[in-house]
Write a structure and sequence with these properties.
Blueprint: H1 4-15, H2 19-49, H3 58-105, H4 110-115, H5 118-160, H6 162-209, H7 211-216, H8 220-246, H9 248-272, H10 278-319, E1 341-348, E2 357-364, E3 369-373, H11 380-387, E4 395-400, E5 403-404, H12 410-415, E6 417-421, E7 429-430, H13 431-435, H14 444-453, H15 457-461, E8 470-471, H16 480-494, E9 498-502, H17 510-524, E10 528-532, E11 544-549, E12 552-557, H18 559-565, H19 568-577
Parallel strand pairs: 3-10, 3-11, 6-9, 9-10
Antiparallel strand pairs: 1-2, 1-4, 4-5, 7-8, 11-12
Helix pairs in contact: 1-10, 2-3, 2-5, 2-10, 3-5, 3-10, 5-6, 5-10, 6-8, 6-9, 6-10, 9-10, 14-16, 18-19
């Protein structure tokens, strides 16, 4: 976590583009504060005109009352301009921070996002930024007028009676010390509160996003207990933080009331001795009240400000994470790849303490179909992550068409791959938009042909608005099989030069799968294809089958040769189809 000084420095950097509104706010605050300071002078003058029964100068009094009305009106206008400017500054700053944070999120490596809970990132971008906005807005509103009021009242009190003013100034540090002491000791509590809130956001996000699984496994009670435990912890931390921070306001009010009582006592004695008029004492008491009020207000927002700085620190911490290694300045653009892929002595691991892939050598000729099989955790999906440069190798290199993939731009490399994964991805929008996602310029006929080839056309035509039917996030009410058919349609429409099929038909019924296999076979003809499969029946026609175990390729060949070898692959095949040994 950055220091408060560093966080405030970054906040000021975000405020810089709004210097004009900041200036307007300061000027409006100055006008409002100065006029509110002038009001007690007019009040004192009015009091001094009330000399006694039958000795009231009504003409002069009316003049003062008119001036007071103008002063109050202009002061109110200044307050409105200040608040409007502060709102603009606060919410524009928050917009910029949130935009920059989301933009940075797109540049972070997948390794970092995989190691951080989704709820934590959501909490930082949404809840923490909102808390920062509240504190920033309150801070602007209170501090501008507060500081000007304190300085103005000091000058005016010194001009009326320096000894009474000196007593007020002497007791002021006590109020500041109390507020600073409490604020310092509540900072750690607010950090704990933000962390606990992030955990809660993660629990809510996970449970709502996977509610079907929760209900399918009758996990409702455990999920509720987990949430209630975290919610109780958040309540305790929040209550403790708010309790200690709320001591600030009453503590400073107690000190300020002592100051006011002292001013009344010393001022009254000065009136008796003839050093002050009753009107001047009235003005002095008003200034003493105005002088102490900003301390009460500022101490009241110390809680929000401390929480705001803590939340801003969490957001800036996310923004400060090391981004993904950028493309080289002279990165090449891969256009219509031939599909020759070479793994050259590749080492890779997700964590330093657990080696996954070691000295992997593999050469894939253009247009070949490569199937990858093996037990869970053997590194099948990891190969896909390395091919797409979602992760970079630790040692060695991967080349496509004779060039290291790190010499290509990521976007051009990934544009040459078409992916159909076991986990489908559909965006909120129409069926048409989801199919044409990889090729927005496709014609209606081309889109429908792709849907027919993937056997998605029949179920689409049964939907209320057919291809214009709107679906929600991740497919909404569509079945998992239907969602997978739409993803297959998307690839059949774009037809990239290389394909990655990771359990692409895992959610599709056997009859439809057999029909799609013919379309897949036609689509893969002439295209380098990597097929990850658990159902070995789907890869019998692959040119080469790679059998992986513990990050290494332990067997390699076509279906018949691997079966006749009687090795690990043969054992997997027999276990799936309950075939006898030999």
């Amino acid at each position: 976590m950055q220091s408060n000084k560093a966080i405030i420095k970054r906040i000021l950097h975000y405020l810089k583009p709004y210097s004009f509104f900041l200036l307007c706010s300061v000027l409006a605050a100055a006008v409002s504060a100065l006029l509110s300071l002038y009001l007690p002078v007019l009040t004192g003058n009015a009091v001094d005109l009330l000399l006694g029964q039958g000795e009231v100068d009504f003409k002069a009094l009316l003049n003062i009352l008119l001036r007071m009305g103008v002063v109050i009106g202009v002061s109110a206008l200044g307050q409105w301009i200040m608040n409007t400017s502060n709102n603009h500054i606060a919410y524009c700053t928050v917009r910029d921070i949130r935009s920059n944070t989301f933009e940075k999120l797109q540049k972070l490596p997948l390794s970092l996002l995989d190691s951080r809970s989704t709820g934590d990132s959501l909490s930082r971008i949404i809840a923490d930024v909102d808390s920062f906005a509240d504190g920033l807005l309150m801070g602007f509103t209170q501090f501008f007028t507060g500081l000007l009021t304190i300085l103005g009242t000091l000058v005016l009190m010194l001009s009326i009676h320096k000894w009474v003013a000196a007593a007020v100034i002497a007791l002021t540090p006590l109020s500041l010390f109390v507020a600073a002491f409490i604020a310092k000791n509540t900072a750690s509590l607010f950090r704990e509160q933000s962390k606990c809130r992030a955990v809660q956001t993660g629990i809510i996000d996970e449970m709502i996003g996977n509610e079907k699984l929760v209900q399918a496994f009758s996990h409702e009670k455990e999920a509720e207990e987990l949430f209630l435990k975290n919610n109780e912890e958040l309540k305790k931390i929040s209550l403790k933080a708010i309790f200690f921070s709320s001591l600030t306001n009453p503590s400073t009010r107690f000190v300020n009331n002592l100051i006011y009582a002292l001013v009344a006592l010393m001022g009254g004695m000065a009136v008796i001795r003839g050093h002050l008029s009753v009107g001047q004492l009235s003005a002095f008491l008003s200034y003493a009240n105005q002088y102490t009020r900003p301390f009460n207000e500022i101490s009241g927002v110390v809680t929000e400000l401390q929480n705001s700085i803590t939340c801003a620190g969490r957001v800036f911490e996310l923004m400060g994470e090391t981004p993904e290694i950028p493309d080289k300045e002279d990165a090449k653009i891969l256009r219509e790849a031939r599909g020759e892929v070479l793994f050259n002595d590749v080492d890779f691991s997700y964590s330093k303490d657990r080696e996954l892939i070691k000295d992997l050598k593999l050469k894939v000729e253009p247009g070949k179909r490569i199937a990858i099989v093996g037990p869970t955790g053997c590194g099948k999906t990891t190969l896909i992550n390395l091919l797409m440069r979602f992760y970079d190798v630790d040692k060695g290199g991967i080349s496509v068409d004779g060039e290291d993939i790190r010499d290509y731009s990521r976007s051009s490399l990934r544009a040459n791959y078409g992916m159909v994964l076991q986990d489908t991805w559909l965006k909120p929008g129409s069926i048409r938009e989801n199919i044409c996602l990889g090729r927005p310029d496709a014609t209606e006929e081309e889109m429908i042909l792709a849907a027919k080839r993937s056997h998605a056309h029949s179920f689409i035509m049964q939907l209320p608005k057919q291809y214009d039917t709107l679906i929600g996030e991740d497919g909404g009410a569509l079945s998992q099989g239907q969602k997978q058919l739409l993803c297959i349609s998307r690839i059949m429409l774009s037809l990239p030069p290389m394909l990655i099929l990771d359990e692409a038909t895992s959610s599709i019924d056997t009859r439809t799968e057999l029909k799609i296999q013919d379309a897949f076979a036609q689509m893969m003809r002439g295209r380098t294809s990597f097929i990850v499969a658990h159902r070995l029946s789907t890869i019998r026609e692959a040119d080469t089958i790679l059998v992986m175990k513990d990050g290494n390729i332990i067997e390699q060949g076509d279906h018949r040769s691997l079966l006749s070898a009687g090795g690990f692959y043969a054992g997997l095949f027999r276990s799936q189809y309950s075939l006898p040994e030999g």
